[in-house]
Inverse folding.
């Protein structure tokens, strides 16, 4: 009923009447379809003549003599060889994605994953699960993804009942801007348990640059546990980084940071446990805030495999451990990540359709 | 005549395989997948007129239709592995339709190419049992008018109308050929008929009395 009203509003006829009219013109209408068409004729007297004209037209078209092939179109090996020689690289590429080939569904799968990623990010943004907040200029965004499922399942205790915990690694480095610039020296990386949803963010602080790596590790275990690690590097960053380096780069940069911190001494590890999220000694302005609701289960942290020892090693000069959780992360502002994923989805769909077209399907 | 399909394009030889003399489509397709040209050419003979007719009515140019049909069959042979069941003829139609659309887009980018050289292919082809010369002349004019109106339809509408109203295929085959649902074909056909009706009404004197508004 609603559909009929909408169709009438936009001047469209609903499919049942279209099909009935077609069947009527073709002389194959059922009793119900004939009734429907007659009802339409009563409402619109001109319709009867229109349909009569269409019937006459169809009759004329059906009387057109059949066309016979003027020659044989038999295919020879020479023709096929010539066609293969003239085939473009694009055509060959398209063949790789032909049905029944190994990569047939790859573009579609990429498109679906990217679209799901955009949808989840958008939903998370709207619901506040994915937090995006500006902390500097227009280029400064912070994104943190809370894995609520990890919260609820980590260690078998509920998020509400578990004591909230926040671990922070604060690395202070007095100077040496070059050591941190060029990677996510002042970046916050948030990795989630959702594949292809590693939402990360950079929080550049030009005036007092702060490197914050927040990782939310939910590895292979079904009880996804969550660890929040924050590294605050008091380094002078000359330009706001927009893309954080992946693990190897993060490692080398962290080593640089360590080297510089040898000069400037102060490397400090803070492991702060707090029942509230705002009780940290570290300025919350400089840290990524994870909207994890009831906090993180201590059990979850214990089970995460990145315990105190790891954190200590990270502070003692094993930055790869500290960065390992962020190794998979690309650090992009949330809106850029959404646009990138959307572009990826559209590109994959376009490629998929284009390759089908090239294949002549 | 077992080798009636063999033409001057290929070396004539006698087909002794009973599969090739009888028409077992699925078996022929399987043989084609194994690279058997004879098997595929048996399919070509079966469907070449149908494919050519649809292509001709889409591109409205005899020479181009021949080239497109040949290319379509070559392409079908090379891509036979991508055929995944369904109506084989519809699969061929789809390849031919896409080749036709490529041609139409190509000539649309080159407006100096004339599409009118073969525009009268419908003329004198409307069958009429009467021996009345006047009726024959009117039929020729009517065919010309229909040709003109058909050429004015969009490619999607034209293909639907050619498949259903001109060539007389079923909706499911037309839908598979186009790659859309049956409902979409019906909708397109409905709009195509309405536009054709409007077009032919511009010259009512050519229409039979029953078709005049």
């Amino acid at each position: 009923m609603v559909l009929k009203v909408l169709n009438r509003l936009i001047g469209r006829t609903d499919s049942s009447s279209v099909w009935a009219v077609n069947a009527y013109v073709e002389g194959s209408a059922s009793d119900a379809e004939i009734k429907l068409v007659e009802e339409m004729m009563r409402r619109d007297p001109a319709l009867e003549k229109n349909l009569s004209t269409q019937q006459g037209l169809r009759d004329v078209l059906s009387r057109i003599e059949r066309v016979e092939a003027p020659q044989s179109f038999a295919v020879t090996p020479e023709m096929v060889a010539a066609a293969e020689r003239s085939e473009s690289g694009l055509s060959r590429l398209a063949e790789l994605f032909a049905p029944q080939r190994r990569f047939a569904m790859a573009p579609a799968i990429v498109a679906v994953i990217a679209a799901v990623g955009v949808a989840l990010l958008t939903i998370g943004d709207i619901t506040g699960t994915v937090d995006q907040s500006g902390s500097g200029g227009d280029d400064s965004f912070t994104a943190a993804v809370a894995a609520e499922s990890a919260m609820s399942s980590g260690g078998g205790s509920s998020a509400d009942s578990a004591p909230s915990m926040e671990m922070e690694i604060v690395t202070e480095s007095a100077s040496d801007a070059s050591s941190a610039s060029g990677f996510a020296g002042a970046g916050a990386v948030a990795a989630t348990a959702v594949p292809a949803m590693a939402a990360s963010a950079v929080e550049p602080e030009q005036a007092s640059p702060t490197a914050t790596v927040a990782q939310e590790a939910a590895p292979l275990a079904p009880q996804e546990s969550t660890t929040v690690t924050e590294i605050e590097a008091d380094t002078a960053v000359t330009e706001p980084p927009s893309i954080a380096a992946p693990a190897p780069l993060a490692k080398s940069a962290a080593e640089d940071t360590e080297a510089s911190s040898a000069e400037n001494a102060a490397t400090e590890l803070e492991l702060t446990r707090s029942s509230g999220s705002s009780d940290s000694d570290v300025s919350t302005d400089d840290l990524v805030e994870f909207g994890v609701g009831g906090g993180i289960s201590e059990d979850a942290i214990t089970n995460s495999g990145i315990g105190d020892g790891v954190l200590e090693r990270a502070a003692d000069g094993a930055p790869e451990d500290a960065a390992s959780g962020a190794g998979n992360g690309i650090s992009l502002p949330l809106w850029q990540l959404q646009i990138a994923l959307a572009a990826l989805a559209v590109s994959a769909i376009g490629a998929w359709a284009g390759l089908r077209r090239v294949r002549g399907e | 005549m077992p080798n009636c399909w063999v033409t001057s394009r290929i070396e004539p030889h006698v087909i002794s395989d009973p599969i090739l003399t009888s028409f077992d489509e699925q078996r022929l397709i399987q043989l084609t997948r194994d690279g058997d040209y004879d098997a595929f050419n048996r399919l070509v003979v079966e469907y070449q007129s149908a494919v050519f007719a649809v292509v001709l009515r889409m591109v409205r140019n005899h020479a181009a239709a021949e080239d497109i049909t040949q290319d379509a069959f070559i392409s079908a042979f090379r891509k036979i592995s991508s055929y995944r069941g369904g109506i084989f003829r519809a699969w061929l139609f789809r390849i031919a339709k896409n080749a036709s659309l490529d041609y139409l887009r190509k000539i649309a980018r080159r407006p100096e190419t004339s599409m009118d050289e073969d525009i009268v292919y419908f003329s004198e082809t409307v069958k009429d049992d009467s021996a009345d010369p006047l009726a024959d002349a009117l039929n020729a004019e009517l065919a010309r008018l229909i040709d003109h109106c058909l050429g004015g339809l969009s490619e999607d509408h034209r293909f639907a109308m050619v498949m259903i109203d001109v060539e007389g295929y079923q909706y499911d085959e037309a839908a598979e050929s186009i790659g859309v649902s049956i409902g979409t074909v019906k909708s397109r056909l409905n709009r195509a008929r309405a536009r054709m009706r409007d077009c032919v009404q511009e010259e009512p004197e050519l229409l039979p009395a029953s078709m005049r508004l």
Summary: The radius of gyration of chain B is 19 Å. Chain B has two domains: 16-112, 119-213. Confidence is low (pLDDT under 50) at residues 1-15, 116-121 of chain B.
